[in-house]
Amino acid sequence: MNQEQLGPISGQQSIEASGGAVDGERSLRPIDIMGVPVHLAENYADWVIMQLRLGLGTHVVTLNAEMVMQAEQNPALAEIIRRAELVIPDGAGVVLFLRLKRQSTDRCPGIELAETLLRRSITDSDPSKRPTFFFFGGKPGISQAAAARWQQELPGVAIAGTQHGYLTPEQQVELQQTLQSLQPSAVFVGLGVPRQEFWIAEHRHLCPQSIWIGVGGSFDIWSGEKSRAPGWLRNNHLEWVYRLYQEPWRWYRMLALPKFAWKAILSQIKN
């Protein structure tokens, strides 16, 4: 398997070293959206970093309208979302649904949460104590290019390894062995929805203390293969328009958006 070792490996910080156990779950408030939860918190990055420091394995789901609609038709996906320790409002549709329910919150894109974890990981002056990251997914060469970009931008960031997402069964086994050996602090999985959610649910036992986040197409953006929507589109909840412009073949998937909006309106009328 073409897997690169890209940086130093450090162990998880212990609960004792962090000053005692902290019940981070108390700061999360679940809100039901058509049968699946989304959690409200003052600061998602702070919550995830606390989980990381305490060595509390966490599956972070980045929820958008398309995933909600898929979960309605796929009970297995819905169950994975319900079991995740953290479900963040990634999509504009989810944020608007919450506002209909008088729950004001900002959108938290998964790519931005992952970037925050990377940037904040280098604040410890002792490199051996910095959390480590593993990038899995994307076309051959993409995750490696994404890692190289971050290592150039953040000297000292500890990326333990990378692997593309086009693996044979034999390479899958080797990847599992690699993860089990490395025990990275966080694993970013970019396989697309819902494949990445199923993959995380099936394999998170390999690194039980790790933070697992489905990051979709983040590696494409970090590597420079694709660009993210301009800020004014993101700020106006129109990032999906830019993605459709870049990938017009996604039009059939975008049909989930008006269906979600209609169901959201009906749910408020019934209430």
Task: Please give a structural write-up.
- This protein has 271 residues and is α/β, with parallel strands linked by helices.
- It has one domain (27-223).
- Helix content is 45%, strand content 15%.
- The protein is built from 13 helices and 8 strands.
- The chain has helices spanning 44-54, 65-73, 75-83, 92-100, 110-120, 142-153, 169-182, 195-203, 218-223, 231-235, 239-246, 251-254, 256-270, and strands spanning 29-33, 36-40, 58-63, 86-89, 132-137, 158-163, 186-190, 211-214.
- The strands form 2 sheets. Strands 4-3-8-7-5-6 form a 6-stranded parallel beta sheet, sandwiched between helices. It has a two-stranded antiparallel ribbon with strand order 1-2.
- Strand 7, helix 8 (195-203) and strand 8 (211-214) form a beta-alpha-beta unit.
- The longest helix is centred in the last third of the chain and has 15 residues, at 256-270.
- The relative contact order is 0.16.
For the residues shown, what is the average pLDDT?
84
| Secondary structure tally: strands | 8
Count of helices?
A: 13
Q: Main sheet? A: 6 strands, parallel
Low-confidence runs (pLDDT<50, min 5 residues)? 1-25
Specify the overall morphology: globular
C-alpha Rg (nearest Å): 18 Å
**Overall domain count:** 1
Q: Helix share of residues?
A: 40-55%
* Helix/strand/pairing category: alpha/beta
Which secondary structure elements does this structure contain, and how are they paired or packed?
Layout: E1 29-33, E2 36-40, H1 44-54, E3 58-63, H2 65-73, H3 75-83, E4 86-89, H4 92-100, H5 110-120, E5 132-137, H6 142-153, E6 158-163, H7 169-182, E7 186-190, H8 195-203, E8 211-214, H9 218-223, H10 231-235, H11 239-246, H12 251-254, H13 256-270
Parallel strand pairs: 3-4, 3-8, 5-6, 5-7, 7-8
Antiparallel strand pairs: 1-2
